Amino acid sequence: QVQLVESGGGLVQPGGSLRLSCAASGTLFRLYVMGWYRQAPGKQREMVAVITSGGTTNYTDAVKGRFTISRDNAKNTAYLQMNSLKPEDTAVYYCNAAPSTWGQGTQVTVSS
């Protein structure tokens, strides 16, 4: 079973950028649908972006045009490039290997 470790979160000003990384263990990473989800205080966890093993991507409307999900199967790593960040992007971001493997989460705070 794959294990996931996120990194790259932090505090950034509105309009800034961050890149999250999700490092996976195991040899079957390339076969998994990988996703990024987020959970803000008092809210339910929501899908941000997903990428299939073939590279097809899907995004929630709130991040389209600002966030980019990608994967490097040679490095067993998925990424989330986040640009033009807004205060409403503040949340704990979780990496997911479908259907039910989760990382520990990384905090993203967008504030001036």
Please, could you describe this protein's structure?
The protein is an all-beta fold. Helices cover 0% and strands 49% of the residues. The chain is built from no helices and eleven strands. It has strands spanning 4-7, 10-12, 18-24, 34-39, 46-51, 57-59, 67-72, 77-82, 91-97, 101-102, 106-110. Strands 2, 4, 5, 6, 9, 10 and 11 form a seven-stranded mixed β-sheet that branches. A four-stranded antiparallel β-sheet has the order 1-3-8-7, with no helix packed on it. Strand 4 (34-39) and strand 5 (46-51) form a beta hairpin. The protein is globular.
Q: Mind sketching the topology for me?
A:
Elements: E1 4-7, E2 10-12, E3 18-24, E4 34-39, E5 46-51, E6 57-59, E7 67-72, E8 77-82, E9 91-97, E10 101-102, E11 106-110
Parallel strand pairs: 2-11
Antiparallel strand pairs: 1-3, 3-8, 4-5, 4-9, 5-6, 7-8, 9-10, 9-11
